[in-house]
Amino acid sequence: MSSPATLDCNDDTTVFGLDTYLKHYYPDLDKSTSESLVNIFLLDSLHDIFNSVVGVSGNRLIDIGAGPCVYQFISACTKFNEIVATDLSKENQDAIQRWVNENADAFEWSQYVKYVCELEGHQNTVDREKEMRKAIQNVTYCDFSKKYPVGSSDSPLYDCVLTGFCIECIVNSQQQWVQYLNNASNLLKSGGWFVQLCMPADFYMIGDARMSCFKVDEEFVLKALKEAGFVVVKSYLTKHTSTRSYMNYEFTMVVLARKL
Ligand SMILES: C[S@@+](CC[C@H](N)C(=O)[O-])C[C@H]1O[C@@H](n2cnc3c(N)ncnc32)[C@H](O)[C@@H]1O
Question: Coil, helix or strand for 129?
């Protein structure tokens, strides 16, 4: 595991407005807010996974619980030909589709794309956005609680399953956490890659709405993956020391694992 970094910001930002989730959790990458530092950590970790770990590539990648986001595909789209973005919520699926369709009211991810292009040592942001839009071939419904979150037992399997900040938002026991990992694993080929982004907390806020969340520690995140039949290949951890009223998280973790 890479050494833990500490985010010292204490910017207990007021949550407000339309598209509250995106605006609050995916602000401009100006390095002065804790959310930006978390997002830089995510982009750095995903860049490392898709560029430095040998063999993380393939034909099809699926994101379970993608929300309204595409930042998680900026590095991945260079290694996978086809990306399927899924979520339980139609509103979130529509937000991704609006970005793919270049609708004027789509969320602006270009700063995130620019940051990753710079990590890669170039500035072809426009080309990368085109590559992402070409790769995201399907935006569809999924339900993580199902044995097969999308499709059925005879659907084609994926080379990579990615999921970010979803399991901790929908389970209420450690046993269920492992069960949902098993559900994700059911979509994966043997030897396929699994990428998990997580930020366990007791709650997080979207505007005035208090969303419940399931808090576990770093050891459990890794243990659960092993219990679900994955081998952990690499993990990235950043610890948070300051308290915030909108989420009582203590760390953010990105884990690359492989299905046995
Ligand atoms: C905290 S958001 C994370 C979104 C995104 N992955 C990100 O990185 O910000 C959790 C997401 O899980 C989705 N979700 C909730 N229950 C789900 C379920 N049973 N199956 C799939 N997605 C679900 C929500 O609609 C929401 O988009």
Answer: helix
